[in-house]
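Predict the 3D structure for this chain.
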Amino acid sequence: MRISIAIIGFLGIALAPWWIPALCMILLSLRWAALEAVLIGVFMDLIWQGSGMLTSTSWHTWPLFTLFGIALLWGFEPLRRRFLF
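Done. Predicted structure below.
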């Protein structure tokens, strides 16, 4: 199940709307301490960041999906410890 959600997330980066990889990141981090969620965020940011990353300070150049993935892993850790183990 973990592998299939991760594959859907990685394929969704290029082939689906932005919320598909975000949903996969949430599902992965709810059940497992999955570094795949952070990797999906990194690849999402690398592919979808606009040009001019060093010259512009607009929102679309910040690594929001990477930060979201890290926050999910840290944020759901107490929940995973309490309910899953």
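The first helix runs from residue 2 to 15.
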